[in-house]
Amino acid sequence: MKITNRAGVTSVSFLPPTLSDGFVVTADGCVGKLAPGKSCEIDVAYAPTTLGTLHGTMRVNSNASSGHRPVKLRGKAVAPPLKMQPKSLDFGLVRSRSQSGSAGVTQIVTLSNPSPVPITLTVAPAATPPYNVTANTCATLAPNGTCTISVEFAPVSPGTFQGTLEIRDNGAKSPQHIKLNGSAN
To answer: How far is Cα 59 from Cα 184, in angstroms, rounded to an integer?
Structure first.
């Protein structure tokens, strides 16, 4: 924010600005006195601790006739995208249920939350058939937390199958997808 002293002959003295929670001063060029006709800048950043929009105020504290002038602030926090490992699952060649009569093959995807705020899955993870989500420890991931999703490849007939595991959450870049590949004989 740029501040200009429009007083004809009087300098303006500043005290540090005061801000609402969630906002921080990153640079304060308005320290001490500001001569008439001169300008200074105060840089403010949004430092969220929760997701969503936050409204706040910065008060510029000075001995100017306007005194403690309020400036409206607004910030919106969006969690970064979840990290997923691996980015794809390859089940290779398996026997179809019609041939083996047994359960399918399972692999695990690990999700991690790199943000300082929780990230919540908004819908249960889902896979396109013949892939199934058989276990899911992911509901809300704590900051820097991890969880797992088990994906089963259970084809009922021979063939090559490509699918997708879809993950929907309140983080950035949602929904996210993991490619699924497998063949059955």
So the answer is: 67
Whole-structure pTM over 0.85, yes or no? no
Beta-carbon neighbour count of residue 106 at 10 Å? 15
Alpha-helical segments (H) within the chain: 97-100
d(CA 181, CA 162): 5
Select from 3.40.630.30, 2.60.40.10, 3.30.930.10, 2.30.30.30 the CATH code of 2-77: 2.60.40.10
Same CATH topology for 2-77 and 83-184?
yes
Q: 26, 63 in Cβ contact below 8 A?
A: no
What pLDDT, in 10s, does the model give residues 76-134? 887 788 999 999 999 999 988 766 666 789 999 999 998 878 899 999 999 999 999 99
Residue 70 CA to residue 61 CA, distance in Å, equals 9
